[in-house]
Design goal:
Chain lengths: 229, 62
């Protein structure tokens, strides 16, 4: 069973990460790099922190960073691979409890993953280009994780609970994070022009949707194939 | 039940529901740890390496 999960997750993660890297290279990364030209051209005012006296908590000159070009592409591919295998592990683990009936079920699992890990969090914290003002990082990460968890449990209850009351509880769980609201910056400002920001949001959402659909389809196909072997 | 699926069914029966639950939770936690490491880690070098992954996936980054 563990082998079954590992094999499904490994191959799925690899394929989905390659697709993600391809889509990013074509559309998403060029937008990020374009935004960074605005960021590096801006006067050296720390836009990320709220306290004027606070030291820049980011952009530590000491830390290693990949150089633009193949180094950056390679490390992004590595990041994609780790994230994709991680998500695929979660999917394969869920399949041991609820085996997908076919490719359609796999697509639904993928869309559920997209809703949990992308759509719900971005409702409060839209995809951001470098150089966009935002609230404290730890607070945003906390809200992001809480939202993903609540959405996952909520969708699970709506899909699998037999009791109507539990289904209602699931729907409530979907809404709660958005009633609480994501942490917002004191002042909304961005260095990149609005059109670039808008295109980035669309690019990020579509890329993630394709990535999750691939994760769901490939993982369910591989999982079923191994079950039948 | 067709004979071709008998093998996988007997394998599924031999692992109990609670065993499967433990493995599923373990694998999920491992997967989430991987995502956390690449997407949420505060280690500067990891952040820089996975920078474009984070922005693209709409993880909180800066």
């Amino acid at each position: 069973m563990i082998k079954h999960i590992a094999r499904t997750a490994g191959f799925t993660g690899l394929l989905a990460a390659l697709l993600l890297t391809l889509l990013q290279s074509l559309w998403v990364t060029p937008l990020i790099i374009k935004a960074e030209t605005y960021e590096s051209a801006a006067p050296v005012v720390e836009t990320h922190s709220h306290d004027a006296g606070a030291a820049a908590h980011h952009h530590d000159a000491e830390a290693w960073a990949p150089e633009d070009g193949w180094q950056r592409l390679l490390s992004t591919t590595g990041g994609n691979l780790v994230v994709a295998v991680g998500f695929a592990l979660v999917l394969a683990a869920l399949y041991t409890l609820r085996a997908p009936g076919g490719l359609a079920a796999g697509a639904l699992w993928g869309l559920a993953g997209f809703a949990v890990f992308c759509l719900a969090p971005t409702l409060g914290l839209p995809p951001e280009l470098p150089g966009t003002a935002a609230a404290d990082l730890a607070q945003r990460q906390f809200w992001w994780i809480g939202t993903a968890a609540a959405t996952a449990v909520g969708l699970g209850l709506i899909a699998f609970a037999r009791n109507g009351l539990l289904k209602v509880l699931g729907a409530v769980l979907l809404i709660i994070p958005h009633v609480i609201g994501a942490p917002q910056p004191d002042v909304h400002e961005a260095l990149a022009p609005e059109a670039l920001e808008a295109e980035f949001k669309v690019a990020s959402l579509l890329t993630n949707a394709a990535f999750w659909l691939a994760l769901g389809l490939v993982s369910s196909w591989l999982y079923r194939r191994q079950s039948q072997a | 039940m067709p004979i071709t699926t008998a093998h996988s069914h007997s394998a599924a029966v031999s692992s109990t529901r609670s065993q499967r639950l433990v493995v599923a939770i373990g694998a999920s936690l491992l997967g989430l740890c991987l995502v956390y490491f690449a997407g949420f880690s505060h280690i500067e070098a990891v952040h820089n390496a996975a920078h474009d992954t984070r922005h693209s996936a709409a993880f909180p980054c800066h």
